[in-house]
Amino acid sequence: MNSMHLPVHQLRADLDAKKYSAQELASSYMKRIHETQKTLNAFITVLSDEEVGKRAAYADELMRVGKTSFLTGIPYAAKDIFLTRGIRTTAASKILKEYVATYDGTAIEKSADAVLLGKANLDEFAMGSSNEYSAFGPVKNPYSLEHVPGGSSGGSAVAVASQQAAFAFGTDTGGSIRLPAGFSSVVGFKPTYGRISRYGVIAMDSSLDTVGFLTQDVRDSAMLLEALAGRDERDSTTIDRPVEKYSEGMEDGVAGMRIGIPKEYFEVDGVQEPVRRSIEDIRALLESLGATVQEVSLPHTRYAMAAYYILTPSEVSSNLAKFDGIRYGTRPLNAKNLDEIYLETRENGFGKEAKRRIMLGAFTLSSNHIDSYYNKALKVRRLAAQDFENVFKEVDMIVCPTTPTVPFKLGERMTDPVSMYVADSLTIPTSLAGVPALSLPVASHNNLPIGAQCIARLFDERTLFRVARTIERELQWTKPRLAI
């Protein structure tokens, strides 16, 4: 069967029409994983064929008795930061390499009748932009094996791009869904902060972490949001708002809409010419379809990255304090006292990027520096949010690049953390503001993917999907060729 290139909504229709069973569908994806995993390294843990078969058989039985949801029988991957009962969850860190959760997180729980295939690779504790900061090795870009797939949800993006899974869960704190979506030529969606429960997701930055999806197309993201959104009493940050039919009105086009393109997004260091051209092409397309496109200003964009890399390490230093060899983490056998347990556990368990952020966060939260750094960064965050509030008084939607560049080579930025951080410079402002955003594939250069980012006002995911779907439907371009 050749169904692995199909989006989830088409797989749903085919399963309902009994063109194939959930077991047959899952088997085809597992075959693809076995063929490509050694090369791409998209997964940390792949479930056994037997376990996947059991999950698929359960889905087939649900469909037989008429208890079918949108996700019943759909094969998927989960970023290895989502807790899964009875299956190890490592956060791509040696400190949790054998940790097995005793419960499912909310997103996994709500997907109980889908078919989990495995846990996707990531940058350790979701800290990184290239998926090279993993204790289980880097993930490779499926279009060019010498290039990065983006991070931190790189394994999730590659699993979807390389047809190893129909969709994948990711998390986005400063761009960790959208950046790998842009680098891997898939759709990556980050909803409004609090739309989807984070219960059962290992925290990195609790005030920014957002659960989202990597999918084949925009409609899948909208329909997945319908299935996963909603208030969760176990997560106090979730929003108590009705779950809408986000997929309605997606084909209505953009005639009469006002679209903004932020000038500051083209002033950051290193925006490459192919990326600029892709946005110019989208501007021309939107205007030809009846939208009014205008330049807008988000003046605090230039400060957003600096603020983010103060705020996030501060929360990291707090959230990762629990990994001490007592409650979590592998305890050293020869430690003589608590100090040695803490020191050896963290020295041997954390990778260099996790250590870097823990130390930076501890520094910025210290009594001598909290006002100079952390409190000022909070003010910048508020100003960045006000930028978006002001712009959305003028326009209905913002369109801009997802990343300044096409994918860079493996190892190219590992010795220069600042150049690595710059990869997130166009995704961080939306994270600080909490607004919904989506990256969709729009072009390629030398077979390397280019993504465009659509950004909407708070809680306006329906307009986000409408504009993104119009671009997806109308833009004529050739998708890159898979290398494997």
Biggest sheet character: 11 strands, mixed
Residue fraction in strands:
5-15%
Rg on CA atoms, Å: 21 Å
- Class based on secondary structure composition and strand pairing: alpha/beta
Distance between the termini: 18 Å
Given as residue ranges, the uncertain stretches (5+ residues, pLDDT < 50) are none
Strand tally is 11
| Biggest sheet, spatial arrangement of strands | 1-3-2-4-6-5-10-11-9-7-8
- Per DSSP, the total helix count is 15
Helix coverage percent: 25-40%
SSE string? HHEHEHEHEHEEHEHEHHHHEHHEEH
What form results from the Cα inertia axes? globular
The chain-level mean pLDDT equals 96
What does this structure look like?
The chain is α/β, with parallel strands linked by helices and 484 residues long. Helices cover 38% and strands 13% of the residues. The chain is built from 15 helices and eleven strands. It has helices at 8-16, 22-40, 49-64, 106-110, 154-161, 178-184, 218-228, 273-288, 301-319, 338-349, 352-364, 370-391, 417-421, 428-433, 461-474, and strands spanning 43-46, 75-79, 115-120, 167-172, 187-190, 210-215, 258-262, 292-296, 397-401, 437-445, 448-455. Strands 1-3-2-4-6-5-10-11-9-7-8 form an eleven-stranded mixed sheet, sandwiched between helices. Helix 7 (218-228) runs antiparallel to helix 15 (461-474) and helix 9 crosses helix 12. The longest helix has 22 residues, at 370-391. The two termini are 18 Å apart. 54% of the residues are buried. The mean pLDDT is 96.
